[in-house]
Amino acid sequence: MSEASLYERIGGDAALRQLTDRFYDLVFAHELISRLFKSDKDEIKEKQRLFLTQFLGGPQLYSDIHGHPMMRARHMPHVITEDDAVAWLQCMSQAVGELPISKELKDELFDRFPRTAFFMVNR
Length: 123
Ligand code: HEM
Hints:
Blueprint: H1 6-10, H2 12-28, H3 41-55, H4 61-66, H5 71-75, H6 82-97, H7 103-110, H8 114-119
Helix pairs in contact: 2-3, 2-6, 6-7
The structure holds protoporphyrin IX containing FE.
Residues 33, 36-39, 44, 47-48, 51, 55, 66, 71, 74-75, 78, 80, 84-85, 88, 113, 116-117, 120 line the site of protoporphyrin IX containing FE.
Protein name: Hemoglobin
GO molecular function, one term: heme binding
Pfam families: Bac_globin (PF01152)
């Protein structure tokens, strides 16, 4: 039998709703990176929930609706520096830290982000 996905182990959809809700509240209030987010907060929360569902091994919700993720290409229109990636990761670290899961699981979850975040740096 295969091991449960990280998506399932953190608590599935309820956990991702809590995570994306808190994360974008922090991002939209952040002094450095809030400038990048011009569209509707609920819409980006929803897209990120769909994306993270599949990113963490759950159903392919993002691709079903929006097609191939191509995350680096989708971020290209936005000027993203290393400092922006660090700030993004700080918001994510705080949001992950507030989830009602074990320290080990928080660490495992947060570890999924730094590589991807620095991959989005495009300037
Ligand atoms: C490195 C720091 C990052 C910055 C500054 C950043 C910034 C942005 C911005 C400005 C948008 C467009 C939001 C809008 O429509 O107003 C966006 C979209 C998105 N970002 Fe990021 N991002 C970063 C890293 C990441 C990472 C690491 C992931 C995934 C783990 C991610 C996933 C997404 C998703 C799923 C969308 C929605 C794409 C769509 O339009 O369908 N981002 N991001």
